[in-house]
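Worked example

This section walks through a single chain of length 56. The input is the sequence exactly as stored; nothing has been trimmed or padded.
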Amino acid sequence: LFNSGIGRSDFDKSDTEALRQNIVNGLLSLPPETLVFPGHGRETTIGKEKTGNPFI
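Given that input, the structure is written out below as tokens.
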């Protein structure tokens, strides 16, 4: 999960829908104030991504 993104899924054997579902069913079940520190880019919160991430 990234700030306003979910990461690349254009590699061989990648599955965009599986990636999205894992984020929705896993990470987005955390409390909205949970901080997210992606491997690169700005930090964010679960709440911000739930309401503003166009890929979810």
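What to look for: The mean pLDDT is 95.
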